[in-house]
Structure formats: structure tokens, C-alpha cells
User: What shape does this take?
Amino acid sequence: MNLKSFFTAFFLFFFLTSYSQTIKGIVIEKIHKLPIENIEIIYNKKSFFTDIKGEFKFKIINYPAIIIFKDDIYFSKQIEIKSHKDYFQIELTNKGFLLDQVVIMSDINRKKLNLSSISISTINNLELKKLEGEFIGKSLNEIPGIFVHSASLNTNRIIIRGLGSRSPYTTNKIKAFINNIPLSNGIGEISIEDIGINIFDQIEITKGPNSSIYGSGLGGSIYLKTNSNLENDNLTIFNSVKSFGTYQNRISFHKNYNNLTSYIEIEKLKSNGYRDNNTYNNLRLFGEISYKLKKNISISYIQNNIKLNALIPSSLSYDNYANNPSSAAYSWASINGGEEYNKNLSGLTLETNSKIYSTKSSFYYKKFKSNENRPFNYLIEDSNTNGIRHISTISKNNFIINLGIDYSKENYKWETYRFYGTLNEVTINNQEEKRYNISFFTQTNYTFNNKNTSIQFGISSNKIKYSWKLLHIVIDPLISQNYSYGNILSPRISLNQKLNNQSIYINISHGYSSPNINETLDGDGLVNPNIKPETGWNYEIGLIGRNKNNILSYNISLYYMDIKNLLVAQRTSFDTFVGINAGKTSHPGIEGQFNLLIYKPNSDNEITLESNFFKNWYKFLDFNNLGIDFSNNLLTGVPSYTYSSHLKFRFNNFTSIISINGVGKIPMNDGNTLFNNKYSIINFKAYKNINFNNIKFIISSGINNLLNKKYASGIVINAKGFGGGQPRYYYPGLPRNYFISLNINI
Assistant: This one.
């Protein structure tokens, strides 16, 4: 090299290195903000990787610069940097394909699923489900161990591992939360089918009484995390047209301003319904505001309002179900029977975070006011609930300790009338109940020095007290009762052992379920204070992991639950129930979830198969009701098995899914003399992304029940016939139906 060439190369090198600039940043998981290590960063045909703290650092030669973030677990992301910035925070969305790498919050401490020692599932493909306006109940049916009896858009009953199967028309024995705010009422009933799925970025289900933090409910808990942590300001408009005269319109707005984050959404859902007397009209308003007071202190407020007006077609006899499934029960159709209610939730949460100590305190108010026109009477309900929920977390060395309290007071009034609103109006019932629930809980997690073994111990103390009054106009003096259930202690202990690409966990836990209103009444319609809560123990072992090349991931659990003081609400007339503790049940079962990567030529194109199954052998151990012994019979209202499989094709901006969902035979009465037939449903859905300047369009379309299978999507157990009519067991499922949706993100 001559002297001229040497100086030219030297000055060129000096020029480039002088004007190149170093950029720094961190890559975090989008939902829970955990740092992600070993993410490949591609710039100028060179690769860099994030360290164990999720941080990266490299030099940019010139601007604008295109940088790509890639990983098998997370969706790839490409950004353009137009000018220098001191620090970047990059958020990546987990694909959910590798089950052990999904980040969860259901035990309050953020962690990957392979570090959990309890059975937790999340709803897959949640972002795609939002694009079709899917409902929470339908999504839950795709999770092993869960079955949802669906009667209509406004009537669903969720069963987890057989718990809740005997509830007539509502979901109980299961806890539910939006962020840190309880959704259950004072007797443990929840109704989440009227909440829009779009406001959540993760839905987690803990199966069985496995969570000291979330109430030790026998069936488990459902944790709904709102999606307030959006990266960019945006306006989203959603429109969907579906079969049976169904229209769904939604508009949402997200804005970040310094330390203030706001999200608001309005959604209108209107449907004529598949059946007669089946119209549905739901107006939803949701808002969330978060403000960072200091670096480690934040406050947030959520408001959720629902106004619903829906007719009720009710269940059908076998003849009507087989020959005219779109009909409504005559007694309901003849009076245009239905319900109208307003539901409001307000919640204020204060969070503090430091390296060792953090807190989360929520104050909430819930109001529910309902009118229901029924063939046998007119029902008016009015509920007001105030509550506080506080959790403190101490992290020191290998210990994480959680301490908390959950207190609520509900004032519940209900009235029934005949000939309501007429000159002949007659009061049947006028009752008031004050419900007090208080729970103290603690949970300790210890991780051994090898970082591969952890043990967890938790216990909750639960106290329930009711104050009841019968406010009947012809009774003087008024009848009143105070009754309570003794302090219920629910402990649990669990172990997680990590072995290379898989983890094994063992868990033993206790749970309880308080009686609902129908289960507390005696033959005179008065409260029976001798009714006891259901209690039970859960024993479980599970395996979570993946193979070495990340082609297959799995989550398998074996469990056994035994429940005593089984609560039975016996229907004696149209609207009269008598509650008793009738015996014991056993709940052995196996659940499995498998994700398989079939084909992947690059990060933008892949074919995957997501499958799960659930098989149980639930039965009555000791069950004697009205002098009849049902011991050793199968548990009523629960399918013997379920399975679900989704074959997903993703090619650049196009995604399609072919799915099949199967349900086994369901015992319809305690004597096991009548079963609902097994069935399987095939669905097809497709999604197309179109980007135009800074506007993103997503077109979605699909066909549900592709083969037009006739099936019952819901069952009324132990149905009785009145007035010489046949028992009405069946809620018919939807025939073949279609949807097309447009989502615009600006």
C-alpha cells in the first residue's frame, strides 16, 4: 500500500468512527414489562444480542437506520431511527407458542409459566379473537379443564374442573378479577359474558383452589389484565357484521402524555338472535387512566359501565330442540320475557415499587340494578358493593413474601311481584341481605441457590357473614336473621423443579365455596343458617416444557380433588329452590396442551398446530338426595372429555385458522339416565393486514360451525316439567354462521 492509499484509508476510518454514534436500550415483554435476554438485533447486516438484563448497545453509522429485533418466542419488530436518541425501550409481543415462556401474573409475582407451581392457562391468539369480536365465554371453551354452558349472549355458566356445574343459571365457585379488583359478588357469583374482550391484553385462568392470593375459590380464578400499556397514541375503529342480524361497532382511543396514560373505549353490540324472543342490545363504556406520580409510585383509575337489554328464549324440551331449535319456550315468548340491567364498576389503585418492597392497594365500588320479566313473576334486583383489596410484596435475597387483605360489603335487595306494573300488582317477596366477606392471605416463595428449585407456601383466612331481612308488606314484625360461617383456613404448598427445558411442579391446596342465594333457602323461602360452604382439597402434579429445538411445547397436569358438603339447590316450582348439603364428590382428571411447529422457512411465515384435551372421571362419592342414593354416579352437567385443535397458517400479512372443538357426553340428571350427545364443531377464520401510510387495516372473516352440526351448547341439569309439559333441558347451539370485520388503526 502506498502512502496516499494509507492516508485515504486512515482518514476514511477516522471520519466514519467520529460520526458514528452509540445507541443504548432495553428490550422488554410488552404486557408485563419484563426484560428479555438473547434477542437478536440486526443492523447493517450485523447481529447483536441483548444481555441478561435485556439491554443492548451498538454503534449507528448514519441515519435513518433500520433495525430489526428477532426471536422465536416473540413476534419480530422493525423500527426506523431517523435521528439520535439516548435510550430506546423496545416492546415485543409473545407469540404464546412456547407455553413455558408465557409470562403470567396470576400469583401476583410476574414470572414465566415454567416457574409456576400451580395450574395456569392463558387464552391463545387473543389479538386475533379481538378482530372478530369474540366473547370471553367462547374463548374459555378452548382451554383444557373448562367448559362453558352457553344459553345465549347474556346467559352463560362457566365450569372449571367440574366446579359450578350445579349452579342453575349463573357462574359460581370461581373468582374473577380485573387487574386487582374483584368482580365476584358477595356470594361468589360472577358474570363476565357481558364484558368486551378487546379491553384485555391477557386473560389467565388458575384451575382449582390453587391461589391464596386470589381467593382460594374451589373452581379457581380468572384474571383479566387490561391493555392500558400501549406503546403509541392511536385511534382504533372496529366494525363487524355477523349472522342473525348482529352488528358490533367499537371505537377506542389511547393517548400517552408525559407521565399520563389514558385509554377509553365505547362498544355497541346489537343482535336479533338466532332464536325467537332472542334480541340482544349491549352498550359498553370502559376507561382507564394511569398517572406516574414519581418514579416508583403510580395511580390508576378504571371505569366500566354496561347497559344491557335482552330477551330470554329459555331452554327447550327435546321435541322442540330436535324439530324447531330456533323457537323460544312458549312461556317466555308469550310475555316477551327478558332482562334489563345497568352494571357499573369504579376502581382506584395505588401502586408503589422499590427493589425490596412494593404495594398495590385498590378501592372499588360496584353497582348492579336489574329488572327481569319472567313467566312466573317479575324480579327486581339492586346491589351495591364497596371494597378494598391490598397486597404488599417483600423481595429479599431468595424470598418473595406477599401479604394482603380483601374486604367487601354488599347490600343486596330483591323483590318479586305478580302482575307487576298493573292495578292487580301483588308483592311475593321483598328481601334484603347484607353480605360481608373478609379474607387475609399470605404467600411465601423461596428459590434455592441453584435457581432451579423453588417452594411456595400460602394460606388464606376467610370469614363470611350475612345479615338477612324479609321485608314483606303483610308480615309484622319483619323477619330477620344474622348468620355466618366460621373462619375457613385454606392452605397450600407447592414445589417447582426446573430441568433443562422442562419443569415439574407438585401442588396441594385447599379451597371453599360459599352458598348462593338459592342454596341458602329452606322450604318456606327463608334462609337456612345450617347450610355449610363447600370445601375441598386439590392434589396435582404437572409438567411444562419444550424440546431442544423449540418445535414442540407442552403443558400437562394430573389432578385429584375431593369436595365435601356438596351444595344442591332443588327446584320445587318455577322459581322456588331448597338448598341442602347433600354429600361428597371426587374430581380426578388429566389436562394437556401441545403446540407444534410444522413449517417455518423464516420469521414471517409458519404453520403451527395448537391442541389441547381434557379427560375426567368425576363422580359422586356419597350423594343421597330426597331418599335416593346417587353414589358412584357420574357428576351431572360436565362433559366426559373436551378437545380443541387449531391449525394456523401465517404467511406475511395473511393468517388463517382451521379449528375443531369436541365435547363428550354430558350427564343431564343425577340418576345418569339421560345424556347429551357428544359433538364436534369445525370453524374457519382468515385475517389480512394492509398497511397504508400510517394507517393499518385488518380485514377478518370466518365461518363458524362449518358443517352445520346440530348440538346443544348448554344444558339445564335435572330439569323438571310443569303443568304436564316435558322437562326443558336443552339450549340449542348456533347453526352455521358467518362474520366479516374491519379494524382500522390510525
Q: What stands out?
A: The CA atoms of residues 490 and 510 lie 5 Å apart. The mean pLDDT is 87.
